[in-house]
């Protein structure tokens, strides 16, 4: 592996880079596909870049029959033709008294992780405005079905569903073109949500911000393409592309903002 590859990414991404290279080496040694856990959009971008740079092999991503944010990666030799089954996904439906209870994305995720399940084994959590489903790795689906009977104080039952019955998410995203003075986290948040940078900094330092689903309290961290920024009580947005700089050296971005 070329050690210089690390300089193109953040220090905290080194472990993930090693994981991708480990997968490539296994494909190289055994000439069989290697399946990765669920990846964030930025991890998907990094994995794609590494596999393309390595050459000889391919990578594909899949998280369900509809467009998904979190997807598993499959590294495979040229001869191989991946199918949906290769990605090891199970779709779980949550049954609960819809008219008398309130369930949210955060409550579902919290319950799943309270069972000792790592975040990277859970895909998208989907709602059509009334029903809820979650995509998980097949190996943990039976455990979750038998372990979870409540979310918050609401009685629930998890049931495995055919992949073709996956709900279409009712989330609405709005694409915006913005110009920012820097790629600092506080600068991006203040621009997207149209409030002061000091307020953005306060939100970060108070523990209200996640970058790629990881809590951060540093206003000065640099964000980049495919990063997802979650802002408690405001929603989330992700950086689709960096489109160059203006004459005043500001950064021109395309972002997608979740409508609330």
UniProtKB/TrEMBL annotation:
Keywords: RNA-binding. Residues 183-240 form the RNA-binding S4 domain. InterPro entries: Nucleotide-bd_a/b_plait_sf, RqcP2_RBD, S4_RNA-bd, S4_RNA-bd_sf. GO terms for molecular function: RNA binding. The keyword RNA-binding applies. CDD domains: S4. Pfam families: S4, YlmH_RBD. PROSITE patterns: S4 (PS50889). This is RNA-binding S4 domain-containing protein. It comes from Falseniella ignava CCUG 37419.
């Amino acid at each position: 592996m070329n050690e210089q590859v690390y300089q193109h990414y953040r220090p905290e991404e080194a472990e993930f880079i090693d994981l991708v290279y480990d997968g490539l080496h296994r494909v190289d040694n055994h000439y069989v596909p290697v399946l990765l856990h669920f990846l964030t959009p930025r991890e998907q971008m990094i994995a794609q870049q590494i596999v393309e740079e390595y050459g000889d092999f391919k990578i594909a991503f899949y998280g369900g029959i509809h467009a998904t944010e979190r997807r598993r990666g499959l590294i495979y030799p040229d001869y191989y033709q991946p199918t949906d089954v290769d990605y090891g996904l199970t779709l779980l439906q949550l049954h609960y008294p819809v008219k008398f209870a309130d369930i949210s994305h955060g409550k579902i995720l919290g319950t799943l992780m309270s069972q000792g399940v790592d975040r990277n084994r859970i895909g998208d959590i989907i709602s059509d405005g009334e029903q809820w489903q979650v995509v998980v790795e097949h190996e943990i689906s039976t455990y979750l079905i038998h372990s979870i009977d409540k979310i918050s104080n609401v009685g629930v039952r998890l049931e495995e569903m055919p992949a073709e019955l996956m709900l279409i998410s009712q989330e609405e995203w709005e694409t915006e073109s913005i110009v920012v003075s820097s790629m600092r986290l506080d600068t991006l948040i203040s621009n997207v949500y149209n409030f002061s940078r000091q307020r953005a900094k306060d939100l970060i330092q108070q523990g209200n911000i996640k970058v790629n689903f990881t809590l951060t309290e540093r206003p000065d961290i640099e964000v980049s393409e495919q990063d997802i920024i979650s802002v408690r009580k405001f929603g989330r947005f992700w950086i689709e592309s960096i489109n160059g700089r203006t004459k005043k050296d500001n950064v021109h971005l395309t972002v997608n903002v979740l409508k609330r």
